[in-house]
Amino acid sequence: MLASALAAFPGTFISGFLQVISLLGLLLLLYKAVQYYLHRQWLLKCLQEFPSTPSHWLFGNHLKDQDLQQTLLWVEKFPSACSRWFWGNKAHAVIYDPDYMKVILGRSDPKPVHSYSFFAPWIGYGLLILEGKKWSQHRKMLTPAFHYDSLKPYVGIMVDSVHVMLDKWEQFIVHDCPLEIYQHISLMTLEIIMKCAFSYQGSVQLDENVRSYSEAVQELTERIYSRMRNAFHQSNIIYNLSSNGRSFYRACQVAHEYTDRMISMRKAQLQNEEELENVQKKRLLDFLDILLFAQTEDGKSLSDEDLRAEVDTFMFEGHDTTASGISWILYALATNPEHQQRCREEVQNVLGDGTSVTWNHLSQMPYTTMCIKEALRLYPPVPAIGRELSTPVTFPDGRSLPKGFLITLSLYGLHHNPRVWPNPEVFDPSRFAPDAARHKYAFLPFSGGRRNCIGKQFAMSELKVAVALTLLRFELLSDPTRVPVLKTRTVLKSKNGIYLCLKKLK
């Protein structure tokens, strides 16, 4: 009898243990359900002053890559701001009013840690992601790289790189087919940032090996966007095991190998005493040399991790956003031929044949500059940015949000807000005439406030050079059979490319 009882004990123990586990699991599930419910009620209470279109309780405003189209509907229907639900309890307040922008960009709220951390395996913790004291130190350290005196000699480099691209275009148009311009422009802007900021020697546009880096950047921006909108991929463990995660990390490796090679090349060049002496004689160093010679407050050089983070950040931001801007500007001019011709006449009067372009020329093209700004209004290279409130905020109309709330600053929505820009879909460069009045925060292609784009003057110079030289060489015609379909990624892209017909000018 005792033996029978002892024999039954393991089964009884296991059965009891499983019951305890089941009970604990049920209690945990109940706790999570209550936690989910209470947090959702908190979100609903916070957002009751920010109405929106109906959303599913689990899938939210499931837009299926229709973010920009939905934004236009929100802007039309809900003044200043609205709410957007992603899935479950993930919700943002979306703002697109200049007074709202002024309030948020005038504060020092951090970027949302969770979503921006998806960039970290690729670009590390550079200026895009850094916060607080370390961000301020890096920003102050790198600002001289974009001083006016540094930018002036870069114009010649920009001119040479644009001419290389235009020479390639002349070869392509003999086939009398529309040309997809974005990929060409991306390689051109990559060459410019590498030569101006990283002392690179050689031709990026004619080097087939560089395409692997450019393609890796496109892959990375796609993967990050899709991950932000996939509830299951918020977990690093699940994402790393997925096919998307494996593709993301393979692309990271390609990008890192390229930037590591560039850093190593520059370090090797500085081992040469003559090159080192030339650099030390410069009053203003370029971007990479500043990083290599920089010292932290305790007298140490930047760590390899910090060095690569800033290089990866500027390699990406310095070429992809500018490529987006130039591509959409040329498309806007192609679809507005009367403005294109007026710009061309202005450029011809200033530059002649364009063989010699200087810094001073860039300020002598007011109408072309107006058209560039109007295109950036219609097609902002960065459609949206995010903030996480570090303290409660009250907006000018009395609506408020608590600490910890997530905010999307929709620059695309702001630039298409009919209360700010009458007839916002119409290309009208007169909006940017010298005597035109507008809200300081109504036009933000380079963001605003203390975290505005550090390279905005560099970018504007590059846009002007590229647009001016292109108009001197070609007439731009749109392809009615391939109208671009906008999609929002880290930068503004087109689902089906940006195709133009190019007609060589005599």
TrEMBL record:
Its cofactor is heme. It is found in: Endoplasmic reticulum membrane; Microsome membrane. Keywords: Endoplasmic reticulum, Heme, Iron, Membrane, Metal-binding, Microsome, Monooxygenase, Oxidoreductase, Transmembrane, Transmembrane helix. It holds the Pfam family p450. GO terms for biological process: arachidonate metabolic process; icosanoid biosynthetic process; kidney development; lauric acid metabolic process; linoleic acid metabolic process. CDD domains: CYP4B-like (cd20678). Belongs to the cytochrome P450 family. This is Cytochrome P450 4A14-like. It comes from Cricetulus griseus.
